[in-house]
Amino acid sequence: MSIFSRIFNAKKQENHSLEEGFSAGQYKIPHHLAIIMDGNGRWAKKRHLPRVAGHKEGMETVKKVTKLANAAGINVLTVYAFSTENWSRPNDEVSFLMKLPVTFFDTFVPELIEQNVRVATIGDIDRLPETTKQAVLDAKEKTAQNTGLILNFALNYGGQQEIVDAARELAREVAAGDRLIEQIDRDSLAERLTTGFLGQYANPDLIVRTSGEERLSNFLPYQAAYSELYFTDVFWPDFDKADFEAALAAYTKRDRRFGNVKA
Ligand code: FPP
């Protein structure tokens, strides 16, 4: 057998076992999985590499996890790529992080189209450098008709600020006489958050954070009210299929009661 057919068959087998694993229905699948991709810097440091090498490898992990999420039948995968607080990092790290979406979409959009994945964002993308913003808008446009997994990037995202913005919008409507104070409720607020476009899937069922840190760091604070939280010590660039399945296995065992009692 030639080297090419060996690689081809190995790939085929890998995909087959991946799909088989998930279609066996051994896991409860979250509709919306959100991930705080932490530990890129420490991953690089461990290898005596510059921090940005961790981000580059982390980008490759986003590609792998997108495929896994799609194969698992997840509806929305939100990844925390850049927070409003990340601007205070050293300039060269910020500019590297700003270039990543350009590289990511340059190399990955054809595959996203092939996989029927739609790209979306939450956060204020208007404040991103123009080339980054254009790459993001372009990817969104090219994948707009896709009906499978929504790959949702939190970019220049800050959870407390989005609540403030939604509150201001509602206040403006009240001031203009278009809304009564009594008509401010959870639904009208949720619709005005940047996740509003996700409708019934706006709130993550499962939030995963890598690298051993156990906090939300201003990620989806309103939407996380009833999310299941899963923490793993694995650094994001090392997060692989086994880690993905471990998260799903843990989620499968959770008893979600939403404040109610067990039936
Ligand atoms: C946190 O690790 C990670 C980030 C702030 C950036 C995450 C970005 C990626 C994984 C790449 C995203 C890809 C695209 C396509 C936009 P850290 O730097 O805080 O790690 P540390 O805590 O070990 O220092």
From TrEMBL:
It is an enzyme of class 2 (transferase). Substrate binds at residues 39-43, 51, 55, 83-85, 87, 89, 209, 215-217. Mg(2+) binds at D38, E228. Its EC number is 2.5.1.-. Keywords: Magnesium, Metal-binding, Transferase. Binds 2 magnesium ions per subunit. Its cofactor is Mg(2+). It comes from the Bacteria. One of its GO terms (molecular function) is transferase activity. The active site is at D38, N86. Belongs to the UPP synthase family. Homodimer. Catalyzes the condensation of isopentenyl diphosphate (IPP) with allylic pyrophosphates generating different type of terpenoids. This is Isoprenyl transferase. It comes from Fructobacillus parabroussonetiae.
